[in-house]
Amino acid sequence: xxxxxxxxxxxxxxxxxxxxxxxxxxxxxxxxxxxxxxxxxxxxxxxxxxxxxxxxxxxxxxxxxxxxxxxxxxxxxxxxxxxxxxxxxxxxxxxxxxxxxxxxxxxxxxxxxxxxxxxxxxxxxxxxxxxxxxxxxxxxxxxxxxxxxxxxxxxxxxxxxxxxxxxxxxxxxxxxxxxxxxxxxxxxxxxxxxxxxxxxxxxxxxxxxxxxxxxxxxxxxxxxxxxxxxxxxxxxxxxxxxxxxxxxxxxxxxxxxx
Amino acid sequence: xxxxxxxxxxxxxxxxxxxxxxxxxxxxxxxxxxxxxxxxxxxxxxxxxxxxxxxxxxxxxxxxxxxxxxxxxxxxxxxxxxxxxxxxxxxxxxxxxxxxxxxxxxxxxxxxxxxxxxxxxxxxxxxxxxxxxxxxxxxxxxxxxxxxxxxxxxxxxxxxxxxxxxxxxxxxxxxxxxxxxxxxxxxxxxxxxxxxxxxxxxxxxxxxxxxxxxxxxxxxxxxxxxxxxxxxxxxxxxxxxxxxxxxxxxxxxxxxxxxxxxxxxxxxxxxxxxxxxxxxxxxxxxxxxxxxxxxx
Amino acid sequence: xxxxxxxxxxxxxxxxxxxxxxxxxxxxxxxxxxxxxxxxxxxxxxxxxxxxxxxxxxxxxxxxxxxxxxxxxxxxxxxxxxxxxxxxxxxxxxxxxxxxxxxxxxxxxxxxxxxxxxxxxxxxxxxxxxxxxxxxxxxxxxxxxxxxxxxxxxxxxxxxxxxxxxxxxxxxxxxxxxxxxxxxxxxxxxxxxxxxxxxxxxxxxxxxxxxxxxxxxxxxxxxxxxxxxxxxxxxxxxxxxxxxxxxxxxxxxxxxxxxxxxxxxxxxxxxxxxxxxxx
Lengths: 258, 296, 279
Hints:
The complex is a heterotrimer.
Chain A: H1 2-26, H2 42-69, H3 73-86, H4 91-112, H5 121-145, H6 150-163, H7 167-179, H8 186-197, H9 201-214, H10 224-238, H11 250-257
Chain B: E1 6-17, E2 22-34, E3 39-43, H1 50-57, E4 65-70, E5 73-74, E6 84-87, H2 99-109, H3 114-127, H4 143-155, E7 161-165, H5 173-188, E8 192-197, H6 200-204, E9 209-214, E10 217-223, H7 224-228, H8 243-255, H9 270-285, H10 288-294
Parallel strand pairs in B: 3-8, 3-9, 6-7, 7-8
Antiparallel strand pairs in B: 1-2, 1-4, 4-5, 9-10
Helix pairs in contact in B: 2-3, 2-4, 3-4
Chain C: H1 3-22, H2 24-39, H3 51-85, H4 88-93, H5 99-139, H6 154-180, H7 184-208, H8 215-226, H9 249-275
């Protein structure tokens, strides 16, 4: 009797529950359990499913931190994959994991092989490349969950630029980062700077002019003043004649005069 | 003819015991009437069905067969309970409340109007003699005090019928006497009281009518004085008789057609002696102040 | 039900609340929960930047969820059986009080207690988050905060509200189990088992979508319908951060309505079962 009653209640409430559930579910991505069973105990599994997913991922992250402090390379790798599988939602995990793989691990490996003075530069570069690839692979996975998060694109760009010293490959990633919603203003500025470093001055010039038009006047972080300075510098480098120089306010002045 | 306060007809209650389908018959075809404004005693040993009967009267259990009414209303209905006050056996109350707060809580629960609340609470607390202790937490009360505050909560909503389940169990003789006095006071206010007890001596002086239960069945019922005093037997209490006088009395009895059953020294009950002594000392101890004034 | 009925329910509820607040168990759990949330400040020592806020929030929500669930079940059980064992229920029901008023009063009393619990923890969590966020604001790159604060504080209360609804539902279920159970322990164990099923039933439902027709699918579908979906109330991780979308009002209303319907259902079941109980 009780069961029938509850069945009926369940059926009746279905129409209210479904839309709400759809909404809630959409924010809780599927757990990719396939790769995880070996690494977890039963308790973790049940707890995770039971709504403690975020907390468990947090705790595992703290553990990851300890592993990082102890420089246990192999364990770090598996921990990082574990945490991001359990809860792929926080970008924080992906980014910090990528940084550990791209910046810290190559340092450890180089030290293991004898240190910066002993290991030949070619080998150092090879190690840096390998680790960077691992980091890129991780960020690619992150992009599946967060396709328009500028921080991920920035991270790739920064690894190319700061670790691999490769402005050519870095530049397009800064560009893509700047195109994502909510991107920090400096992404576009760095892109232009990287173009300059590669000697692509006219590309940089055109890009900066367009950027200046697009940016809002009232936001101090947009740093339009600096952009204008760069534009002027490029005009000198490119030897642009005075009457063709960038004058975004000219129309305004004309309007005022009239 | 006024309505019976309680009317029980053909009441039977079976309890299922365990899984085997065996039934325990706690009350067996009980028929009983309690009249308005009397003190009725329900007597019997443990397990005789007293508590079960009372629970059915209060609508806490359902009868297997038969029906009960209280002032004409079915006892299972909530309406019937408006005119009933109940003090359970070995009562337990929320320990953290004070006596007054407890009575007030139950008064509000029973629907006593806000305007009359304080008066009602104060008057019943005074009636049960708990005025001095009403501000203290119930958790600090002795057994006798618990019973008395229990009585207070039972009558605060001025019910016509008061049901008391073992009101003096575990209470010392002084406390029992106090409770008995309160019960008599309630009767004089026009209420009906149903008492259940297995302490026969305490009941004897209090009830108008009693029913004796055993094994769920009604064994005996009637007015106390009728039950307790056999018709045909008289006792004369005499003092100052000589030996010859005794012989003359015995002859007179034989001549009058009677039979001398026994000669014995009348005994005071231990109860009476105890009460006497204790009360005497309490009276001596109490008005020290007035004694002081008198001394001048 | 007339005015007296409502008044009775409220009286019983407030009395239940007072009684529960005095219970050592409640106080211990509350203390532990507070200590736990306060200890979340230990996350400072890791230099997580704004990630620290997420950790604190997750930890706080988790504590609320965990201890609240335990509390809802144990307090309901304890209060109910106290009344029966001490026979204060007897005194109560001998008065002109419906058994239903008694049950509802107890349920409401527990709800009030859970409300106090939830509010306290939410305020504490909000306080800690505010403090840490302010400190981070002063320490870190201001451009991160150009859109204003990172956290939506009203969402803490929103999460608290949803959990409170869930605790109400849990209490109603516990009350239902208690109404026909004979002991404390049995009630607690059964209620916890039901809690686990309700919490995990959403997985069964997701699985059933992939299953073939047959007994298995039917069974799983049945579970999905009979047991309310508790995961619905666990939106904690989705809230709070301003970058995430807020929960739309319609969904909130739907979830609230869902909870109320189920609470009513279990309260009714409890009443039906309690009516036949012999005290």
